[in-house]
Design goal:
By secondary structure, the protein is of the alpha+beta class. It has seven helices and four strands; from the N terminus they run H-H-H-H-E-E-H-H-E-E-H. It has one domain: Nuclear Transport Factor 2, Chain: A (Roll). Strand 3 and strand 4 form a beta hairpin. The longest helix is centred in the first third of the chain and has 17 residues. It is elongated.
Length: 167
């Protein structure tokens, strides 16, 4: 019985230790899962960006909710990892709600129907709430290893727009 318990504990320790969470791929997965799980840092950044928008309080709340819905519906697939010395790239295909298409159509419609639509932001937000179509984007994440730890390099604005479905 003791041998079975020792074998079981050893198996747990080996399995737990063999999963290396310090890889470029694991760092990218960790980053994307923060969006999916509405990590407090992600929400704080979202609120900070939404606060800069020229919207009413209610519109800002609605916009935050729409973006949170986007984050929770984000899905991804790791396609490739390439490590050269202390740098790495991780190629990812993400799938998000296609908000950019909805915003583009909202602008066009609003321009031609200004007399019928009281407030552009209300109209745009209503359209965003109804988005069901998704779009896929490719993103290449760059990472650098410092003192044996992989860290994500700064993500450019275009890739952030892809994550938000606004590219």
């Amino acid at each position: 019985m003791k041998k079975i318990v020792i074998l079981f504990i050893s198996l747990i320790i080996i399995t737990g230790c063999s999963k290396n969470i310090n890889t470029p791929t694991s760092k990218v997965e960790e980053f994307l899962s923060r969006y999916q799980n509405l990590d407090p840092t992600v929400i704080e950044n979202l609120k900070s960006n939404v606060d800069k928008e020229k919207m009413s309080k209610n519109q800002k709340k609605k916009y935050e909710s729409i973006m949170e819905h986007q984050y929770q519906n984000l899905s991804y697939k790791i396609n490739d990892e390439d490590i050269v010395d202390q740098t790495a790239t991780v190629k990812v295909e993400i799938e998000v709600l296609n908000y950019s298409y909805s915003i583009m159509n909202s602008k066009k419609y609003y321009e031609s129907h200004k007399d019928e639509i009281e407030n552009y932001n209300d109209y745009k937000l209503k359209q965003l709430e109804q988005v069901k179509d998704k779009i896929k984007y490719d993103i290449t994440f760059n990472l650098t290893q410092y003192d044996g730890v992989w860290e994500l390099d700064e993500i450019d604005n275009y890739d952030l727009q892809k994550i938000h479905g606004l590219y």
